[in-house]
Amino acid sequence: MHPHNQGTIKNPSGEGIVGNPTCGDVMRIYIKVKKKKKEEVIENIKFETLGCASAIATSSMVTDLAKGRTLDEALKISRDDVAEALEGLPPIKMHCSNLASEALTAAIENYREKEKGE
Q: Which domains does the chain have, with CATH numbers?
């Protein structure tokens, strides 16, 4: 009912876009990474999602779970973690939690690719 972290980040450190052609859901996650000592931490994270209520809820939840975590910790967030944090999803909507974790992974991979290029 009240998604968190909805919106965009100007000049994000990384951006991940995923979609499901079967249901039409598209998720975009933006991350801002801050280097703290030897760790890289997700300082800010936002999402834009075109899709059903479950797609929006899982996008919101994955951003809540990832914010403040290191990149390695965030990569470990699974579809089951997202569904559990939402106190369950109907079986037919579990693909939404998968998309959310895939979008987060894509944003982190995009950030790491950019870092290699510098």
A: 14-117 (3.90.1010.10)
pLDDT tops 80 at residue 22: no
Helix (H) or strand (E) holding 19: strand 14-19
- Helices (H), ranges, 1-77: 53-66, 71-75
Question: Looking at this protein, which amino acid is placed at residue 87?
Answer: E
Active site residues: 23, 96
Selection from 83, 99, 101 nearest residue 18 by Cα = 99
Q: Two tokens at 3?
A: 């998604």
What share of the chain in percent tops pLDDT 90? 65
Q: Which residues contact 78 (CB under 8 A, 6 or more apart)?
A: 101
User: Crossing angle of helices 53-66/94-117, nearest 10°?
Assistant: 50
